[in-house]
TrEMBL record, chain A:
<comment type="function">
    <text>Component of the proteasome, a multicatalytic proteinase complex which is characterized by its ability to cleave peptides with Arg, Phe, Tyr, Leu, and Glu adjacent to the leaving group at neutral or slightly basic pH. The proteasome has an ATP-dependent proteolytic activity.</text>
</comment>
<dbReference type="GO" id="GO:0005634">
    <property type="term" value="C:nucleus"/>
</dbReference>
<dbReference type="InterPro" id="IPR023333">
    <property type="entry name" value="Proteasome_suB-type"/>
</dbReference>
<dbReference type="GO" id="GO:0004298">
    <property type="term" value="F:threonine-type endopeptidase activity"/>
</dbReference>
<comment type="subunit">
    <text>Component of the proteasome complex.</text>
</comment>
<comment type="similarity">
    <text>Belongs to the peptidase T1B family.</text>
</comment>
<comment type="subunit">
    <text>The 26S proteasome consists of a 20S proteasome core and two 19S regulatory subunits. The 20S proteasome core is composed of 28 subunits that are arranged in four stacked rings, resulting in a barrel-shaped structure. The two end rings are each formed by seven alpha subunits, and the two central rings are each formed by seven beta subunits. The catalytic chamber with the active sites is on the inside of the barrel. Component of the immunoproteasome, where it displaces the equivalent housekeeping subunit PSMB6.</text>
</comment>
<dbReference type="InterPro" id="IPR001353">
    <property type="entry name" value="Proteasome_sua/b"/>
</dbReference>
<keyword id="KW-0391">Immunity</keyword>
From TrEMBL, chain B:
<comment type="subunit">
    <text>Component of the proteasome complex.</text>
</comment>
<dbReference type="InterPro" id="IPR000243">
    <property type="entry name" value="Pept_T1A_subB"/>
</dbReference>
<dbReference type="GO" id="GO:0004298">
    <property type="term" value="F:threonine-type endopeptidase activity"/>
</dbReference>
<comment type="similarity">
    <text>Belongs to the peptidase T1B family.</text>
</comment>
<keyword id="KW-0645">Protease</keyword>
<dbReference type="InterPro" id="IPR023333">
    <property type="entry name" value="Proteasome_suB-type"/>
</dbReference>
<comment type="function">
    <text>The proteasome is a multicatalytic proteinase complex which is characterized by its ability to cleave peptides with Arg, Phe, Tyr, Leu, and Glu adjacent to the leaving group at neutral or slightly basic pH. The proteasome has an ATP-dependent proteolytic activity. This subunit is involved in antigen processing to generate class I binding peptides.</text>
</comment>
<dbReference type="Pfam" id="PF00227">
    <property type="entry name" value="Proteasome"/>
</dbReference>
<dbReference type="InterPro" id="IPR029055">
    <property type="entry name" value="Ntn_hydrolases_N"/>
</dbReference>
Length: 225, 286
Protein backbone atom coordinates (compact mmCIF):
# COMPACT_ATOMS: atom_id res chain seq x y z
CA UNK A 1 0.00 0.00 0.00
CA UNK A 2 1.75 3.08 -1.23
CA UNK A 3 1.28 6.35 0.58
CA UNK A 4 0.40 9.22 -1.74
CA UNK A 5 2.94 12.03 -1.98
CA UNK A 6 0.71 14.48 -0.15
CA UNK A 7 0.77 12.30 2.98
CA UNK A 8 4.51 12.35 3.48
CA UNK A 9 5.11 14.78 6.31
CA UNK A 10 7.23 17.85 5.72
CA UNK A 11 10.02 17.60 8.24
CA UNK A 12 10.19 21.33 8.69
CA UNK A 13 7.01 21.37 10.75
CA UNK A 14 5.39 19.37 13.52
CA UNK A 15 3.15 16.49 12.43
CA UNK A 16 -0.31 17.17 13.82
CA UNK A 17 -0.36 20.91 13.75
CA UNK A 18 -4.06 21.41 13.15
CA UNK A 19 -6.16 22.73 16.04
CA UNK A 20 -3.05 23.88 17.80
CA UNK A 21 -3.12 26.68 20.32
CA UNK A 22 0.52 27.39 19.66
CA UNK A 23 0.91 30.02 16.91
CA UNK A 24 3.07 29.52 13.83
CA UNK A 25 5.88 31.87 14.63
CA UNK A 26 6.84 29.89 17.75
CA UNK A 27 7.83 27.07 15.44
CA UNK A 28 9.69 29.11 12.86
CA UNK A 29 13.42 29.06 12.80
CA UNK A 30 15.15 32.17 14.04
CA UNK A 31 16.78 34.05 11.18
CA UNK A 32 18.84 37.21 11.02
CA UNK A 33 17.16 38.90 8.03
CA UNK A 34 19.93 41.42 8.05
CA UNK A 35 22.03 43.94 6.33
CA UNK A 36 25.78 43.58 6.87
CA UNK A 37 28.66 45.56 5.41
CA UNK A 38 32.43 45.75 5.46
CA UNK A 39 34.54 48.57 3.99
CA UNK A 40 38.32 48.59 3.92
CA UNK A 41 40.36 51.75 4.35
CA UNK A 42 44.06 52.35 4.56
CA UNK A 43 45.00 51.04 7.99
CA UNK A 44 41.98 48.93 8.86
CA UNK A 45 38.44 47.95 8.10
CA UNK A 46 35.01 49.25 9.14
CA UNK A 47 32.23 46.73 9.61
CA UNK A 48 28.57 47.37 10.29
CA UNK A 49 25.31 45.51 10.78
CA UNK A 50 21.70 46.14 11.72
CA UNK A 51 20.28 44.51 14.88
CA UNK A 52 17.08 42.68 14.01
CA UNK A 53 16.47 38.92 14.50
CA UNK A 54 13.11 37.54 13.37
CA UNK A 55 11.13 34.34 13.86
CA UNK A 56 8.65 34.57 11.02
CA UNK A 57 6.85 37.87 11.50
CA UNK A 58 7.91 38.40 15.12
CA UNK A 59 11.09 40.23 16.05
CA UNK A 60 12.76 37.92 18.53
CA UNK A 61 15.63 40.27 19.37
CA UNK A 62 15.71 43.94 18.36
CA UNK A 63 19.22 44.64 19.68
CA UNK A 64 21.17 41.68 18.29
CA UNK A 65 24.92 41.92 17.96
CA UNK A 66 25.72 40.41 14.58
CA UNK A 67 29.37 41.49 14.69
CA UNK A 68 30.88 38.47 16.40
CA UNK A 69 34.53 38.48 17.50
CA UNK A 70 36.43 35.45 16.27
CA UNK A 71 39.79 36.60 17.51
CA UNK A 72 41.28 39.80 18.97
CA UNK A 73 41.27 41.60 15.63
CA UNK A 74 39.12 39.36 13.46
CA UNK A 75 35.35 39.77 13.32
CA UNK A 76 32.61 38.09 11.37
CA UNK A 77 29.28 39.57 10.32
CA UNK A 78 26.50 36.99 10.46
CA UNK A 79 23.47 36.72 8.21
CA UNK A 80 21.10 33.81 7.62
CA UNK A 81 19.95 31.37 10.25
CA UNK A 82 20.85 32.57 13.75
CA UNK A 83 21.47 29.06 15.07
CA UNK A 84 23.65 28.02 12.12
CA UNK A 85 25.79 31.16 12.13
CA UNK A 86 26.24 31.13 15.92
CA UNK A 87 27.30 27.47 15.79
CA UNK A 88 29.77 28.01 12.92
CA UNK A 89 31.22 31.10 14.60
CA UNK A 90 31.73 29.14 17.83
CA UNK A 91 33.49 26.33 15.96
CA UNK A 92 35.80 28.72 14.09
CA UNK A 93 36.59 30.65 17.30
CA UNK A 94 37.52 27.38 18.96
CA UNK A 95 39.73 26.35 16.06
CA UNK A 96 41.51 29.68 15.88
CA UNK A 97 42.10 29.81 19.61
CA UNK A 98 43.12 26.23 20.16
CA UNK A 99 44.82 25.18 16.97
CA UNK A 100 46.19 28.34 15.43
CA UNK A 101 46.40 30.80 18.29
CA UNK A 102 47.68 28.94 21.28
CA UNK A 103 49.17 25.68 20.20
CA UNK A 104 50.74 26.17 16.82
CA UNK A 105 51.46 29.85 16.17
CA UNK A 106 53.15 32.59 18.15
CA UNK A 107 51.67 35.42 16.14
CA UNK A 108 48.06 36.42 15.61
CA UNK A 109 46.22 34.45 12.90
CA UNK A 110 45.65 35.88 9.44
CA UNK A 111 42.18 36.95 8.40
CA UNK A 112 42.53 34.54 5.50
CA UNK A 113 42.95 31.66 7.96
CA UNK A 114 39.68 32.57 9.63
CA UNK A 115 37.96 32.98 6.27
CA UNK A 116 39.21 29.59 5.11
CA UNK A 117 37.96 27.93 8.28
CA UNK A 118 34.55 29.49 7.69
CA UNK A 119 34.64 28.38 4.08
CA UNK A 120 35.47 24.80 5.07
CA UNK A 121 32.50 24.55 7.46
CA UNK A 122 30.06 26.33 5.17
CA UNK A 123 31.00 24.28 2.12
CA UNK A 124 31.05 20.93 3.87
CA UNK A 125 27.59 21.36 5.34
CA UNK A 126 26.20 23.54 2.60
CA UNK A 127 23.07 21.36 2.21
CA UNK A 128 22.14 21.73 5.87
CA UNK A 129 23.20 25.29 6.62
CA UNK A 130 21.77 28.71 5.82
CA UNK A 131 24.59 31.14 6.46
CA UNK A 132 26.08 34.19 4.79
CA UNK A 133 29.18 35.43 6.56
CA UNK A 134 31.53 38.36 6.03
CA UNK A 135 34.94 37.93 7.65
CA UNK A 136 36.89 41.10 8.29
CA UNK A 137 39.84 42.05 10.41
CA UNK A 138 43.36 43.22 10.72
CA UNK A 139 45.70 40.29 10.49
CA UNK A 140 49.38 40.95 10.18
CA UNK A 141 51.35 40.76 6.94
CA UNK A 142 49.35 39.20 4.16
CA UNK A 143 50.69 38.00 0.85
CA UNK A 144 47.34 38.05 -0.94
CA UNK A 145 45.83 41.29 -2.14
CA UNK A 146 42.25 41.87 -1.06
CA UNK A 147 40.18 41.67 -4.20
CA UNK A 148 37.26 43.76 -3.12
CA UNK A 149 37.54 46.57 -0.63
CA UNK A 150 33.78 46.68 -0.07
CA UNK A 151 31.42 43.85 0.74
CA UNK A 152 27.72 43.84 1.58
CA UNK A 153 25.53 40.93 2.56
CA UNK A 154 22.17 39.88 3.86
CA UNK A 155 18.64 40.38 2.65
CA UNK A 156 18.86 44.16 2.89
CA UNK A 157 22.00 44.39 0.81
CA UNK A 158 20.05 44.30 -2.44
CA UNK A 159 18.64 47.73 -1.67
CA UNK A 160 22.02 49.41 -1.36
CA UNK A 161 24.04 48.09 -4.29
CA UNK A 162 23.25 51.22 -6.24
CA UNK A 163 24.11 53.47 -3.32
CA UNK A 164 27.45 51.69 -2.82
CA UNK A 165 28.31 51.79 -6.50
CA UNK A 166 27.73 55.51 -6.72
CA UNK A 167 29.11 56.62 -3.35
CA UNK A 168 32.15 54.49 -2.70
CA UNK A 169 35.48 55.85 -3.87
CA UNK A 170 38.84 54.25 -3.15
CA UNK A 171 41.00 56.19 -0.73
CA UNK A 172 38.42 57.06 1.91
CA UNK A 173 39.64 57.58 5.46
CA UNK A 174 38.23 56.02 8.61
CA UNK A 175 35.57 58.62 9.38
CA UNK A 176 34.33 58.73 5.80
CA UNK A 177 34.03 54.94 5.85
CA UNK A 178 32.04 55.08 9.07
CA UNK A 179 29.68 57.68 7.61
CA UNK A 180 29.26 55.67 4.43
CA UNK A 181 28.52 52.48 6.35
CA UNK A 182 26.04 54.17 8.66
CA UNK A 183 24.27 55.82 5.72
CA UNK A 184 24.10 52.62 3.68
CA UNK A 185 22.78 50.59 6.61
CA UNK A 186 20.13 53.21 7.40
CA UNK A 187 18.91 53.16 3.82
CA UNK A 188 18.72 49.38 3.79
CA UNK A 189 16.95 49.27 7.16
CA UNK A 190 14.43 51.78 5.87
CA UNK A 191 13.45 49.55 2.98
CA UNK A 192 14.03 46.00 4.14
CA UNK A 193 11.45 44.56 6.54
CA UNK A 194 13.88 42.04 8.00
CA UNK A 195 16.47 44.68 8.88
CA UNK A 196 16.06 47.28 11.56
CA UNK A 197 16.75 48.31 15.11
CA UNK A 198 20.08 50.00 15.78
CA UNK A 199 23.22 50.23 13.69
CA UNK A 200 26.25 48.53 15.17
CA UNK A 201 29.64 49.62 13.86
CA UNK A 202 33.15 48.40 14.58
CA UNK A 203 36.52 49.70 13.41
CA UNK A 204 39.32 47.15 13.35
CA UNK A 205 42.86 48.39 12.99
CA UNK A 206 46.31 47.78 14.38
CA UNK A 207 45.48 49.74 17.54
CA UNK A 208 42.54 47.50 18.31
CA UNK A 209 38.78 47.38 17.96
CA UNK A 210 36.53 50.35 18.46
CA UNK A 211 32.80 49.60 18.77
CA UNK A 212 29.95 52.01 18.33
CA UNK A 213 26.15 51.91 18.39
CA UNK A 214 23.90 54.36 16.55
CA UNK A 215 20.42 54.31 18.06
CA UNK A 216 17.29 54.40 15.95
CA UNK A 217 16.50 58.06 16.44
CA UNK A 218 20.09 59.11 15.70
CA UNK A 219 20.32 57.45 12.29
CA UNK A 220 20.97 59.69 9.28
CA UNK A 221 17.70 60.64 7.67
CA UNK A 222 17.30 60.73 3.92
CA UNK A 223 13.72 61.04 2.83
CA UNK A 224 11.44 63.78 3.99
CA UNK A 225 8.35 61.52 4.19
CA UNK B 1 33.31 -2.58 -7.66
CA UNK B 2 29.71 -3.40 -6.87
CA UNK B 3 28.52 -2.90 -3.31
CA UNK B 4 25.68 -4.82 -1.77
CA UNK B 5 22.80 -2.92 -0.32
CA UNK B 6 23.45 -3.41 3.38
CA UNK B 7 21.27 -2.02 6.13
CA UNK B 8 23.30 0.62 7.89
CA UNK B 9 23.89 0.06 11.60
CA UNK B 10 22.00 2.64 13.62
CA UNK B 11 24.09 5.54 14.79
CA UNK B 12 23.24 8.56 16.93
CA UNK B 13 20.39 10.97 16.25
CA UNK B 14 16.73 10.47 15.49
CA UNK B 15 15.39 7.63 13.37
CA UNK B 16 12.73 8.76 10.94
CA UNK B 17 11.88 5.26 9.71
CA UNK B 18 8.32 5.25 10.97
CA UNK B 19 7.31 8.68 9.71
CA UNK B 20 5.85 7.38 6.45
CA UNK B 21 3.93 4.70 8.30
CA UNK B 22 2.65 7.23 10.83
CA UNK B 23 1.47 9.52 8.05
CA UNK B 24 -0.50 6.66 6.51
CA UNK B 25 -2.04 5.79 9.88
CA UNK B 26 -2.94 9.44 10.43
CA UNK B 27 -4.67 9.51 7.06
CA UNK B 28 -6.65 6.35 7.81
CA UNK B 29 -7.62 7.60 11.28
CA UNK B 30 -8.74 10.98 9.94
CA UNK B 31 -10.93 9.23 7.38
CA UNK B 32 -12.85 7.56 10.22
CA UNK B 33 -13.25 10.96 11.91
CA UNK B 34 -10.85 10.61 14.83
CA UNK B 35 -7.41 12.17 15.35
CA UNK B 36 -4.12 10.87 16.62
CA UNK B 37 -3.20 11.85 20.19
CA UNK B 38 -1.09 14.98 20.17
CA UNK B 39 2.14 15.37 22.11
CA UNK B 40 1.60 17.37 25.26
CA UNK B 41 2.83 20.89 24.65
CA UNK B 42 3.22 23.62 27.19
CA UNK B 43 1.39 26.41 25.28
CA UNK B 44 2.98 28.70 27.79
CA UNK B 45 4.08 32.08 28.77
CA UNK B 46 7.56 32.19 30.28
CA UNK B 47 9.71 35.21 30.92
CA UNK B 48 12.70 36.50 32.80
CA UNK B 49 14.07 39.87 33.86
CA UNK B 50 17.38 41.04 35.29
CA UNK B 51 17.09 43.41 38.25
CA UNK B 52 19.62 45.09 40.49
CA UNK B 53 20.76 42.08 42.50
CA UNK B 54 19.76 39.12 40.33
CA UNK B 55 17.23 37.51 38.06
CA UNK B 56 13.46 36.91 38.31
CA UNK B 57 12.02 34.05 36.23
CA UNK B 58 8.28 33.58 35.77
CA UNK B 59 6.00 30.99 34.17
CA UNK B 60 2.34 30.03 33.91
CA UNK B 61 1.24 26.48 34.86
CA UNK B 62 -0.95 25.16 32.05
CA UNK B 63 0.05 22.15 29.92
CA UNK B 64 -2.11 21.45 26.86
CA UNK B 65 -2.66 18.34 24.76
CA UNK B 66 -4.17 19.63 21.54
CA UNK B 67 -7.15 21.71 22.68
CA UNK B 68 -7.49 20.10 26.12
CA UNK B 69 -5.71 21.17 29.27
CA UNK B 70 -3.67 18.14 30.31
CA UNK B 71 -2.21 19.56 33.52
CA UNK B 72 -3.68 22.55 35.34
CA UNK B 73 -0.70 22.99 37.61
CA UNK B 74 2.51 21.83 36.00
CA UNK B 75 5.90 23.16 36.96
CA UNK B 76 7.75 24.91 34.13
CA UNK B 77 10.67 26.36 36.07
CA UNK B 78 13.33 23.64 36.13
CA UNK B 79 16.37 23.32 38.34
CA UNK B 80 19.71 23.38 36.56
CA UNK B 81 22.10 24.08 39.41
CA UNK B 82 21.84 25.80 42.82
CA UNK B 83 22.35 29.20 41.20
CA UNK B 84 20.78 28.57 37.76
CA UNK B 85 17.15 27.87 36.85
CA UNK B 86 15.53 27.40 33.43
CA UNK B 87 11.94 27.95 32.23
CA UNK B 88 10.80 25.74 29.38
CA UNK B 89 8.24 26.23 26.60
CA UNK B 90 7.41 23.90 23.73
CA UNK B 91 7.05 20.13 24.01
CA UNK B 92 6.82 19.29 27.74
CA UNK B 93 8.88 16.09 27.52
CA UNK B 94 11.62 17.81 25.54
CA UNK B 95 12.03 20.69 27.99
CA UNK B 96 11.92 18.34 30.98
CA UNK B 97 14.53 15.90 29.65
CA UNK B 98 16.82 18.53 28.12
CA UNK B 99 17.01 20.50 31.35
CA UNK B 100 17.59 17.33 33.37
CA UNK B 101 20.40 16.18 31.07
CA UNK B 102 22.15 19.54 31.16
CA UNK B 103 21.63 19.83 34.93
CA UNK B 104 23.30 16.47 35.46
CA UNK B 105 26.19 17.25 33.08
CA UNK B 106 26.66 20.63 34.72
CA UNK B 107 26.89 19.05 38.15
CA UNK B 108 29.65 16.73 36.93
CA UNK B 109 31.40 19.70 35.30
CA UNK B 110 31.11 21.72 38.49
CA UNK B 111 32.59 18.89 40.55
CA UNK B 112 35.42 18.66 38.06
CA UNK B 113 36.22 22.40 38.12
CA UNK B 114 35.52 22.76 41.84
CA UNK B 115 33.55 25.96 41.21
CA UNK B 116 29.95 27.09 41.10
CA UNK B 117 28.77 26.69 37.48
CA UNK B 118 28.39 29.74 35.26
CA UNK B 119 25.25 30.58 33.34
CA UNK B 120 27.29 30.89 30.13
CA UNK B 121 28.37 27.23 30.54
CA UNK B 122 24.78 26.05 30.85
CA UNK B 123 23.86 28.21 27.84
CA UNK B 124 26.61 26.73 25.69
CA UNK B 125 25.74 23.15 26.68
CA UNK B 126 22.06 23.73 25.88
CA UNK B 127 22.67 25.46 22.54
CA UNK B 128 25.13 22.84 21.36
CA UNK B 129 22.72 20.04 22.20
CA UNK B 130 19.74 21.72 20.55
CA UNK B 131 21.77 22.59 17.43
CA UNK B 132 22.92 18.99 17.15
CA UNK B 133 19.28 17.92 16.89
CA UNK B 134 18.53 20.62 14.30
CA UNK B 135 15.31 21.86 15.92
CA UNK B 136 13.64 18.47 16.35
CA UNK B 137 13.86 18.84 20.11
CA UNK B 138 11.06 21.33 20.61
CA UNK B 139 12.45 23.14 23.61
CA UNK B 140 12.37 26.94 23.83
CA UNK B 141 14.05 27.98 27.08
CA UNK B 142 14.61 31.00 29.26
CA UNK B 143 17.80 30.42 31.24
CA UNK B 144 18.64 32.66 34.17
CA UNK B 145 21.03 32.64 37.08
CA UNK B 146 23.63 34.45 39.14
CA UNK B 147 27.30 33.49 39.06
CA UNK B 148 30.67 35.06 39.83
CA UNK B 149 30.18 37.57 36.99
CA UNK B 150 26.76 38.75 38.13
CA UNK B 151 23.22 38.00 36.95
CA UNK B 152 22.72 36.64 33.43
CA UNK B 153 19.64 35.90 31.32
CA UNK B 154 19.54 33.97 28.04
CA UNK B 155 16.76 32.94 25.67
CA UNK B 156 17.43 29.70 23.82
CA UNK B 157 15.48 28.70 20.70
CA UNK B 158 14.79 25.11 19.54
CA UNK B 159 17.23 25.37 16.63
CA UNK B 160 20.08 26.32 18.92
CA UNK B 161 20.36 30.09 18.65
CA UNK B 162 20.65 32.11 21.84
CA UNK B 163 20.25 35.74 22.80
CA UNK B 164 21.67 37.39 25.91
CA UNK B 165 19.29 40.15 26.97
CA UNK B 166 18.09 42.04 30.07
CA UNK B 167 14.50 40.82 29.59
CA UNK B 168 13.13 37.93 27.55
CA UNK B 169 9.82 36.17 26.94
CA UNK B 170 9.10 32.85 25.20
CA UNK B 171 6.13 30.66 24.36
CA UNK B 172 2.78 31.31 22.73
CA UNK B 173 1.97 34.08 25.21
CA UNK B 174 5.32 35.78 24.72
CA UNK B 175 3.89 38.65 22.68
CA UNK B 176 1.50 39.63 25.47
CA UNK B 177 4.26 39.34 28.08
CA UNK B 178 6.74 41.28 25.92
CA UNK B 179 4.22 44.11 25.55
CA UNK B 180 4.21 44.48 29.37
CA UNK B 181 8.02 44.37 29.51
CA UNK B 182 8.53 46.90 26.72
CA UNK B 183 6.20 49.27 28.53
CA UNK B 184 7.49 49.01 32.08
CA UNK B 185 11.03 47.62 32.11
CA UNK B 186 13.70 49.82 33.67
CA UNK B 187 17.32 48.85 34.29
CA UNK B 188 18.38 48.27 37.94
CA UNK B 189 14.93 47.65 39.39
CA UNK B 190 14.35 46.62 42.98
CA UNK B 191 13.35 43.04 43.75
CA UNK B 192 9.70 43.83 44.54
CA UNK B 193 9.29 45.88 41.35
CA UNK B 194 10.87 43.12 39.28
CA UNK B 195 8.59 40.49 40.82
CA UNK B 196 5.55 42.64 40.17
CA UNK B 197 6.64 43.23 36.55
CA UNK B 198 7.16 39.51 35.89
CA UNK B 199 3.88 38.68 37.60
CA UNK B 200 2.05 41.18 35.39
CA UNK B 201 3.76 39.93 32.25
CA UNK B 202 2.76 36.31 32.94
CA UNK B 203 -0.76 37.45 33.84
CA UNK B 204 -0.96 39.21 30.47
CA UNK B 205 0.00 35.93 28.79
CA UNK B 206 -2.48 33.94 30.88
CA UNK B 207 -5.43 36.19 30.17
CA UNK B 208 -4.72 36.92 26.52
CA UNK B 209 -3.37 33.60 25.22
CA UNK B 210 -5.40 30.41 25.07
CA UNK B 211 -2.36 28.18 25.46
CA UNK B 212 -1.43 29.71 28.83
CA UNK B 213 -3.42 29.67 32.04
CA UNK B 214 -3.83 28.70 35.70
CA UNK B 215 -1.34 30.06 38.20
CA UNK B 216 1.82 32.15 38.13
CA UNK B 217 5.09 30.64 39.38
CA UNK B 218 8.06 32.84 40.18
CA UNK B 219 11.71 32.11 40.88
CA UNK B 220 13.91 34.88 42.28
CA UNK B 221 17.65 34.17 42.08
CA UNK B 222 20.17 36.37 43.83
CA UNK B 223 23.76 35.88 44.91
CA UNK B 224 22.77 34.75 48.39
CA UNK B 225 19.44 32.96 47.95
CA UNK B 226 16.92 31.40 45.61
CA UNK B 227 13.18 31.93 46.19
CA UNK B 228 11.16 29.32 44.34
CA UNK B 229 7.62 30.67 44.79
CA UNK B 230 5.10 28.16 43.55
CA UNK B 231 2.43 29.42 43.25
CA UNK B 232 3.12 33.10 43.54
CA UNK B 233 -0.35 34.06 42.40
CA UNK B 234 -3.44 31.95 41.95
CA UNK B 235 -5.22 34.08 39.37
CA UNK B 236 -7.52 31.29 38.21
CA UNK B 237 -8.90 29.75 41.38
CA UNK B 238 -11.67 27.23 40.85
CA UNK B 239 -14.96 28.76 41.99
CA UNK B 240 -17.20 27.18 44.67
CA UNK B 241 -20.34 25.70 43.16
CA UNK B 242 -23.60 27.04 44.62
CA UNK B 243 -26.76 24.99 44.40
CA UNK B 244 -30.16 26.12 45.53
CA UNK B 245 -32.75 23.58 46.62
CA UNK B 246 -36.17 24.06 48.04
CA UNK B 247 -38.66 21.64 49.53
CA UNK B 248 -42.23 22.05 50.53
CA UNK B 249 -42.67 21.01 54.12
CA UNK B 250 -46.34 21.58 54.58
CA UNK B 251 -48.31 24.08 52.61
CA UNK B 252 -47.66 27.05 52.81
CA UNK B 253 -44.19 26.43 54.37
CA UNK B 254 -41.18 26.05 52.07
CA UNK B 255 -37.62 25.33 53.15
CA UNK B 256 -34.79 26.83 51.08
CA UNK B 257 -31.30 25.32 51.23
CA UNK B 258 -28.24 26.87 49.61
CA UNK B 259 -25.08 24.68 49.24
CA UNK B 260 -21.76 26.49 48.90
CA UNK B 261 -18.97 23.93 49.04
CA UNK B 262 -19.02 22.67 52.61
CA UNK B 263 -21.29 25.29 54.10
CA UNK B 264 -24.98 25.67 53.56
CA UNK B 265 -27.64 27.99 54.77
CA UNK B 266 -31.21 27.09 55.42
CA UNK B 267 -34.24 29.29 55.63
CA UNK B 268 -37.94 28.58 56.03
CA UNK B 269 -40.43 30.75 54.20
CA UNK B 270 -44.19 30.96 54.23
CA UNK B 271 -45.51 31.27 50.69
CA UNK B 272 -49.07 32.11 49.67
CA UNK B 273 -49.05 31.51 45.93
CA UNK B 274 -46.94 30.51 42.93
CA UNK B 275 -45.82 34.00 42.05
CA UNK B 276 -44.35 34.46 45.51
CA UNK B 277 -42.57 31.12 45.16
CA UNK B 278 -40.85 32.20 41.96
CA UNK B 279 -39.85 35.49 43.52
CA UNK B 280 -38.39 33.69 46.51
CA UNK B 281 -36.36 31.33 44.30
CA UNK B 282 -34.95 34.30 42.38
CA UNK B 283 -34.10 36.10 45.59
CA UNK B 284 -32.31 33.16 47.16
CA UNK B 285 -30.38 32.13 44.09
CA UNK B 286 -28.50 35.46 43.91
Amino acid sequence: MAAPAAMIPYFGQQMSSKNDLVPDWTRQEVSTGTTIMAVEYDGGVVIGADSRTTTGAYIANRVTDKLTPIHDRIFCCRSGSAADTQAIADVVTYHLNVHSGVIELDEPPLVETAANLFRASCYRYREELTAGILVAGWGGVSFKKILNPVAVGGSGSTYIYGFMDSNYKPGLNKDQCLELTAAALSLAMERDGSSGGVVRLATISEEGVERRVILGNQLPKFSSH
Amino acid sequence: MATLAVTRPPFGGFSFENCKRNAVIEGEVNKVGCSLPAARKTGTTICGVIFKDGVVLGADTRATEGMVVADKNCSKIHYISPNIYCCGAGTAADTEMTTQIISSNLELHSLSTGRLPRVATANRMLKQMLFRYQGYIGAALVLGGVDCNGPHLYSIYPHGSTDKLPYVTMGSGSLAAMAVFEDRYKPDMEEEDAKRLVRDAIAAGIFNDLGSGSNIDLCVITKSKVDYIRPHDEVNKKGIRETLMFRRLSFPEYIFMKHMGKAFQMVTVIIQDEEQLFMCVELHST
